[in-house]
Amino acid sequence: MAQQTKAAYYTEFGGIDKLQVGPLDLPELGAADVQVLVQAAGINPVDAIVREGKFAPVVPSAFPTVPGWDVCGIVEKCGPEATRLPVGTEVYGYVRQPVAQHGTFAERIVVPEQYLTKSPEKLSWVEAGGLPLVGLTAYQSVIKAGQLKAGETVLILGASGGVGSAAIQLAKDAGARVLAVASAENADYMTKLGADETIDYKAGPVADTVKKLAPEGVDLLFDAISGDTLAQSLATLKPNGRLISVLNDGKSLSLPASVRFQHVMAQPSVADLDHLRELADAGKLTVPIAATFALDDVKKAFEQIESHHTTGKVVIVPQRPEKK
Ligand SMILES: NC(=O)c1ccc[n+]([C@@H]2O[C@H](COP(=O)([O-])OP(=O)(O)OC[C@H]3O[C@@H](n4cnc5c(N)ncnc54)[C@H](OP(=O)(O)O)[C@@H]3O)[C@@H](O)[C@H]2O)c1
Questions:
Q1: Model confidence over 248-273: pLDDT tens digits?
Q2: Which of 142, 246, 311 has most ligand 1 atoms within 8 Å of its beta carbon, as the pocket-test mutant?
Q3: Of all residues in the chain, what percent carry a pLDDT higher than 90?
């Protein structure tokens, strides 16, 4: 008989009411798989989009679906070809598989080893479980696609959320001047993470404030919010600036031809996770935690992330008590 695990799951697309918590069969351990005792699993806005069925054109789902792509935990079993991360290794990863079915909001998961790597030693399990998707998104956007360099100025929209919090720190580490946009309530929070200037998007057009802070314009605009805030901010770009968005495909933006635009969708990458671990272990990358929730409270975790006003990360903690 298949081993079972306690998991959050849903059997059809829909709202938060579709979520259930109970025992489910674990997938059989394949040759290249590992079984992980989950210590922490970050929740992201995309988990709600997948649950609603709106992400199906990009990543199809199979039911019952266990949501969640972020994980930190301990390897319990290894398939014969999974030799990189032996039993007992503390691992973390962004487990976005080709089909959304065997997610991370569970006490145990069986996943291909290829999505995982050693977790940062300096981070708690909760912090490490909240890092993969937001860390990869910020790194692949600001540093890899955005090519942010020392001495440049970056404007970050949505800077107090999971992605933005990582983006501020990576931009500071790159030696850039950071202008961070969120509500005034989060100004101190963003300053503590390294923002040189904070801008309240509720206080008037963002471009008006940026014009005073950086009259020559910004080199890189990193958009993690889109909508009106992005529309208002386009005028802040230098003529040959770069715009990286994790939400907007650029079609409706009518950008000058000289602006380099790229839409980024975060990709699983062990090499990039290794880089993020090095930054975290060097004290250059922290993961501020907004709230943790037990598996039984998974609906509350979704309610918080679906508010779109989370400061830092929301993380599901299936094992109690937390040991690290
Ligand atoms: N393409 C990809 O691969 C990818 C990857 C990760 C995330 N995303 C997307 O990126 C977005 C951000 O993700 P996240 O995890 O950082 O979300 P999050 O943790 O929910 O953070 C959202 C943040 O945006 C701020 N905010 C809300 N309205 C704003 C506005 N009009 N202007 C500026 N800031 C505003 C909020 O701050 P206040 O509370 O102060 O308003 C909040 O801190 C989501 O839509 C997500 O789906 C895409």
A1: 999 889 888 899 999 999 999 999 99
A2: 246
A3: 95
Question: Distance between CA 128 and CA 76 in Å, rounded?
Answer: 18
Domain 134-263: CATH superfamily is NAD(P)-binding Rossmann-like Domain (3.40.50.720)
Q: Which residues, listed in sequence order, are joined to residue 283 by a DSSP beta bridge? A: none
CA-proximal residue: ligand 1, atom 25 (nearest): 158
How confident is the model over 159-203, as pLDDT tens digits? 999 999 999 999 999 999 999 999 999 999 999 999 999 999 999
Domain with CATH 3.40.50.720 in the chain: 134-263
Ligand 1 pocket residues where CB is under 6 Å: 44-46, 133-134, 137, 157-158, 160-164, 181-183, 185-186, 201, 224-225, 229, 246-247, 264-266, 305, 308-311
Architecture per CATH, 4-131+287-316: Alpha-Beta Complex (3.90)
Q: What is the dihedral of CA 98, 99, 104, 108, to 10 degrees?
A: -100
Q: Tell me, what's the pLDDT at 323?
A: 60
Q: Are 138 and 158 in contact (CB under 8 A)?
A: no
pLDDT in tens, 223-246: 999 999 999 999 999 999 999 999
Task: Report the Cα 120 to chain-centroid distance in Å.
Answer: 16
∠ CA 224-228-234, rounded to 5°? 75
What's the CA-to-centroid distance between 200 and ligand 1, angstroms?
14
CA 74-78-81 angle, 5° bins = 135
